Amino acid sequence: MNRAGETLTTVATFLLSLVLAIFIWMSASQTQDPVRTRFLDVPLQYVGLPAEASLVEADPRQTVQIRLEGPDSVLQQYTSNDFTATVDLSRVPFGEPVSVDINVTTSRSGATISFITPEQVEVTLEQQVTRDIPVEVDIRGAVARGHTQGEALVEPASIRVTGPASQVNQLDFALVTIFLNNAVETLIETPAPIFYDQAGRVAGVGGLDLSQDEVTVTIPVEESAGFADKLVTVVWTGEPAPGYRLLSVTADPPSVLVEGRPAQVNLLASVSTEPIDIDGLTESFQQAVVLDLPAGITVDPEQTVTVNIEIEPILTTSSYNRVPEPRGLRAGYEAVVEPQQVRVVLFGPLPMLDALSENDVRVILDLFGLTEGTYSIVPDVDIPDRGIEIRSVQPAAVTVTISQTVPTTPSAVETPVASSREDASTTAPTPNTRVPAFCYVASGVVSAGLQEICIGRRKVE
User: Fold this and answer.
1) Are residues 39 and 121 located together in one domain of the fold?
2) Are residue 210 and residue 157 in the same domain, yes or no?
3) Whose CA is closest to 457, among 438, 442, 444?
4) pLDDT value at position 139?
5) What pLDDT does residue 186 have?
6) Is the domain of 132 the same as that of 210?
7) More confident residue, 448 or 133
8) Is the pTM value of this prediction over 0.85?
9) Domain limits at 439?
10) Which CATH number covers residue 216?
11) Domain shared by 210 and 144, yes or no
12) What is the pLDDT, as a whole number, of residue 425?
């Protein structure tokens, strides 16, 4: 009996120790890797949509949120890509809102999904239908006078529309609008149609599948019998003034609609204007003209023809040889220029070039502040501002040698003699006339005014 009690005591002690060890181990494990909670957003997917159905309404949310529970080390390994959230539409009836469960699955283990929000989404399915919607044409305006409009051709005559029954079944027709705007030839346009519902209101087709977005509308336009569109030929006489040229002659409009017997109209290649005199003109002008029509041919009296005549000067080049003119040379110095002439080439209107006088083209050498020595001077060309430009100056620079002049010895100055009828004792002597030193330069440039001064001062006052 004692031996059995001891055995029982030993077993109980062992079990108690094992439970205590497991508890201590679990406590230690939870302390090192505690159980935690984590939230993840998983993308929501709709699957199982029947081929003949369309999803017309669905919950706007694109993700669902799940709550995971498990050891922290395991939770840290999970991402949203480890889960799939699906809504199965394969058994959803048509035409009414239905709440469908969200099913979340994962291929990983170690954590538990304890909560999903939302658990359901509301969807509405509709049967998908296809209809051919006819295309109608709204023609506005009219063709030009003397022309006939044919029957409009629409290609294709209808547009195939596929989508939910509630949207497709409300469509009645598609409309395209064409503006003729006095068309004189066959009109081909590719407008986008506008859809209308059964009540005649504009209907949106967003989300619907259209067989095409545009249609081709062809409206034949032909000339009526006895009418024809003929080119206008401008007739002129004379020539522009010398130095000017006729640049262009155009008629606005370039053609006119004429009326007459069909045979006569068909023989007419063009219609001419009455002659326009341009003799001696120097500028462009615009003028309303009268047409010189054959007998039996008429035009609309309200139709006017304006002729635009463009005249411009002839542009050319002209060369001029000019002697350089020194400016600013100091008194007592002379300048020798090499070469003695400079060739200037000008470009501009011929009448302006022909009107240039000798003094209108001048070559100037700036010698201000220069002393003795040899210099390379770039000449300045002075021309009138008449739309003329300088194309070249040759040479581009001239050589100028400046040297000091040696004044000559002035000649003896005659002393004026007093009048014999005057008393010598009362007559005051007349002072000698003195000549400025700059008048005795050996050579150089002296202005006309200075020459007159020098000549005048050499005379006895």
Assistant:
1) yes
2) yes
3) 438
4) 93
5) 92
6) yes
7) 133
8) no
9) 411-461
10) 2.170.120.40
11) yes
12) 38
Domain boundary among 287, 313, 339: 313
Place of tokens 């359901």: 120
Res. 53 pLDDT band, cuts 50 70 90? confident
Provide the pLDDT for residue 219.
94
- Number of helices (H), then strands (E), in the chain: 6, 36
For 215, the token pair is 């249609």
Element (H, E) at 187: strand 187-189
The domain that holds 104 is classified in CATH as: 2.170.120.30
Please tell me whether residues 266 and 276 are part of one structural domain: yes
Q: Are residues 301 and 332 in the same domain?
A: no
Name the DSSP class of 73: H
Q: Which of the listed residues 356, 371, 404 is the one where a domain comes to its end?
A: 404
Alpha helices in 184-277 (DSSP H): 262-267
Dihedral pair phi/psi, residue 287, rounded to 5°: -150, 135
> For residue 437, with 0-12 CB atoms within 10 Å meaning exposed, 13-18 middle and 19 or more buried, which class applies?
exposed
* pLDDT bucket at 33, cuts 50 / 70 / 90: low
| Same-domain check for residues 121 and 133 | no
255-293 confidence digits (pLDDT tens): 998 888 888 888 888 999 999 999 999 999 999 999 998
The pLDDT, as a whole number, for residue 439 is 44
Contacts of 195 (CB under 8 A, 6+ apart): 133, 171, 173, 174, 175, 202, 203, 204, 205
Residues near 436 by beta carbon (within 8 Å), at least 6 away in sequence: 453, 454, 457
Number of domains in the chain: 6
CA distance 71 to 110: 8
Q: Examine the domain organization and report whether 381 and 346 are in the same domain.
A: yes
Q: Are strands 291-292 and 270-273 parallel, antiparallel or unpaired?
A: antiparallel
Burial category of 159 from C-beta neighbours within 10 Å (exposed 0-12, middle 13-18, buried 19 and up): buried
pLDDT digits 0-9 by tens, 332-357: 899 999 999 999 999 999 888 888 88
